[in-house]
Amino acid sequence: MKKILLLCSAFLVLSFGLAACGQEVKTPTKTPEKTTAKAVTTRKDTRQYFEQSWKQTWKGLETNIKHVTVVQLSNASKTKMKTKDQGVISVKMHVKNTTDQDMYVFSDQATLVVDGKTNPIFKNDSQNITEKLAKNSEKDILLIFHIPTLTSVTQYKQVILKWAMSTQKDATKTDGDNSKKEEVTLSLTSAK
């Protein structure tokens, strides 16, 4: 009798196991989650280079403006730069001190007049704007100006760059003999 009971139990376990394998298991279907993805139109910055040929020597300090770059910023760049300004204008210049004394280029106080409006230098993005230029040395300077209403890289025909230079370290002690205020009109019509 024990054998029959054992056989019946084995048969029952086996039949339930096989029945479970043959059943179609239905998993509850998930309704797709609604996600709202903001469509972002990515556009690269638009830029235009304008070569310059302005050169001057004052008391052994040679200044050469190499080029002006006008950049209309993309939304991605404005976000990255944390700015609402529509564009940037940069001026690259090279200065060389050919004298036996230190000279001072106050490029950190430069301004750019665009369409009648004066724009101060944006010091955080500019490069090599330290004032002192040691005797017999040279450097490239990159001046950056944020432009609030730039709608096209060819929008402006000219800009006016203003800065000062001196043989004196203290900008407040400069006069006509030991310093010079520069004001240069740069053309933005011949693209590079």
TrEMBL record:
Residues 171-192 are annotated as: Disordered. It comes from the Bacteria. Residues 171-184 have a biased composition (Basic and acidic residues). PROSITE patterns: PROKAR_LIPOPROTEIN (PS51257). Keywords: Signal. Residues 1-19 form the signal peptide. This is DUF4352 domain-containing protein. It comes from Listeria rustica.
